Amino acid sequence: MWKPVITAVHGLCAGGAFYLLNESDIILCSDDAQFFDPHVSFGLVSACEPVGALHRMPYGEIMRMVLMGNDERITAETALRIGLVSQVLPREALLPTARALAAKIAEKPTVAMQGTVRALWEALDLPYSAAVQNAYKYTQIGNRISRLDRGRVAKAPHTLR
User: Fold this and answer.
1) Fewer CB atoms inside 10 A, N or C side of the chain?
2) Packing angle between helix 110-123 and helix 128-140, nearest 10 degrees?
3) Distance between CA 146 and CA 83 in Å, rounded?
4) 138-151 pLDDT tens trace
5) Residue 86 has what DSSP assignment?
6) 34-36 vs 74-75, strand pairing mode
């Protein structure tokens, strides 16, 4: 499924919740959000969650989080600074902002949105030059849009071919 995933986090986000973060395209959080991985504090290996986070967070920040376990939390401000989240909001504004963002994204042509998401997710698994080559296939196809999406975009000649 190549639909954009927007995640809104408030309160504690720990351990297995990183599976959800790792599958998200856009993450917003409230100013009270805290992120951590408690695995090592309980004698468990932390592997899948931090490996998945490598495409979003710097290595050193992931290592600090997983090695500190329950002893340290990533604050909302730090999450923003390291790129884990793209916006920090007051808690009461979190869901309305996430919903408004989702509504704006949903207004865009479906095929263009799905191709964009797919191209970027595929790029995560490839070396840079291969990712660029792979991305070309999406633009070389002609950026066709479905009949349902034609009403959503301006009728520019290059978009209706």
Assistant:
1) N
2) 160
3) 34
4) 877 656 655 555 55
5) S
6) antiparallel
